[in-house]
Input
Amino acid sequence: MSDILAALKPAELATWYRRLADAVDRNRGDLKVSLAALLLRHWLDNRDPSSSFIFDAPDHVWNHSLLREAWEFHRRVFLSEEQARFTGGLKKWAGVIPRLLGHPPFPKWDGGMPLSMDYSSLVETPLRYQLTGDKADKDLLTSLRGFQLKTTVVLTATSLRKGDRWKINFQSFQSKILDRYDFDYKEHFTVDNPDYGSKAQTAVEPALNKITVYHTNAKRLEDAALAAPYDVESRPRQVADARLMGAAEVEARLP
Output
C-alpha cells in the first residue's frame, strides 16, 4: 500500500492533519466531544515533548465498558480478592488484607482511621473497534488506544466480631487517565479521508473515501517542529456507581 501523504511537504501535511481533526469532529455523531480530534489538534499545536495536557474526559469515555471492567478489577485488588499485577508479570497480594494483617511492608491497620490506597492498570482498546465499534469505541481507539487507569480509594473498616471478618466501606472512589500521546512510527492506520469529494486544489486524493496514514508522516511533522508528543492526564473523577462503592465483607487471611 503506497504512502499517499509522503508527497506532501511538512506544512501541507500539517494542514491535512488539521482537516482530519475537523472531519473527525464533524462526524462524531451524538458524542458531545471527540477526544480523538481534541488530542490530535493539541499534538499539532504542541512544540514541547516534555509538556503535559490536562483535560476533562468526556462521558462516553468514563461510561465505557472497558473502564467499568478495569474498575471492577481495581475493586477486587483493593479488597484483596485478586492479586495486583505489576511490571514484568509479577503478581502479589495488595489491598486491605495485608494491611489488616500487618504484613510487611504495610503497617498493621486497625480500621480506626481512613485508609487511602491507589492502583493503576493498563486499559487496552481492541483494534477490532476500527471495524466493529460504535462512535464511542472508535473515539477511544483513535485517541488513547492503550492507557493507564489510576484509581484512588479511601476506605474504612469495622470489625464484625465474627472470627476475622471485617466490613469494608468505600468513602471515595476516584479515577483518572494517564497516557503518552505519541505515534509508533512503524505502524499505520486507515481513516476516513477528510478530502473525500472535495473540489479544493489542496485536496488529497478526493476520489478516495478512505486513506491509509503511515505514522512516518507524524515523525516528519515532529522533525519539522510542526507537532510534538506530550503526556496526557485527565482530571480525577468520582466514580459514583453503587456496585463499585458498595460495602463488602472480607476475612483477614490470605491463601
The chain has a mean pLDDT of 96. The chain has nine helices and eleven strands. The first helix runs from residue 10 to 26. Residues 1-30+185-228 form one domain.
